[in-house]
Amino acid sequence: MAQLMRNDRSVQNVKKLGITEFTFRVAVTKDEERVLKFIREFYYPEELLTLSIAPKEPTKADEEFSLSCIPTGLSIVAENSSGDFVGVLLCHEVDNSTLPERKIQTSQITDCKWRAILTFLHDLEEHSAICRRLDVPKGVQFSVLSVHSGHRGKSIGQKLMQKASENALEKGFGAIGAVCTSIFSARIAEKLGMTLVHTQAYRDWQGEVELRPPAPHENATANCYVKKLVK
Prior knowledge:
Helices cover 38% and strands 21% of the residues. The protein contains 9 helices and 7 strands, in the order αβαααββαααβαβαββ. Helix 5 (99-107) packs antiparallel against helix 6.
């Protein structure tokens, strides 16, 4: 697995981005426990899809799915000078040709909440169709974007997505995609030149369970963005 180590070049790149106090690198397997702790504290308590289906806590399968992104070498973490995480972006490979098979597997999941979440995400994947839409064999999907509450407003989320895009291109992927469930992540996607291709209001989704985002997010939408990567 290729790693982006914290060397002189990476530090120079960080300085060019205007962030001298943080470093960005590819997440590795030994980070899994720390990543899980981080997203439990700063991601899931605010994640609208998770909160839209009772119980409000994430399922074990959901957490395992998030962590399964790390061994692929596509995810990025941001650290402060003490080595503490201040941001995490978990990414996974997308191959739309496998969607029909994955839908069948999802229909057999016994946990109602996790089955509904995956079904919702499959619907979004079908509409955004990264690979077919952009005519590439494989792409990278940004799945979980989380920034420490004490470090927001410092462009960490944007730099995480920039670094993930560069990493995906280096690894030979032809496109990136993101499902943005907040106005903040949507703004980042637009700043990176990603194109909005599909919007789904949570409350209008016709699934096996009704999605009910908590106040004041009753009218919230999931917004699908894509971008072709060019060397």
